[in-house]
Specification:
This protein has 83 residues and is of the alpha+beta class. It has helices at 3-12, 45-55, 58-67, and strands at 17-19, 27-30, 33-36, 74-76, 80-82. The longest helix has 11 residues, at 45-55.
Length: 83
């Protein structure tokens, strides 16, 4: 999965949320509506792990593995802060 491309899509589409789940294509919340990104194939567990490794701290990953979900913010190339 091209994480940078996905984040640019989030910004371009002015999505407020990005939802990632194994065996599902990413879902964006746009104007309150959840919209599945059909142009992106379903994510594997390896895709999710790779994303987590790139954008979270070790503490956040520990929390994710404990709770199996995680809300966090990410600064994207100085363009935006995604929460």
């Amino acid at each position: 999965m091209d994480w940078e491309k996905l984040l640019r899509s989030v910004l371009e589409k002015k999505a407020s949320d990005l939802h990632l789940d194994v065996a599902c294509s990413p879902v964006l919340r746009i104007n309150g509506e959840l919209i599945k990104q059909e142009d992106i194939p379903p994510l594997s567990i390896h895709d999710i792990e790779a994303v987590l490794e790139q954008v979270t701290t070790p503490e956040q990953r520990t929390q994710f593995h404990k709770e199996m979900e995680l809300d966090f913010a990410y600064s994207f190339f100085g363009l935006a802060r995604l929460e």
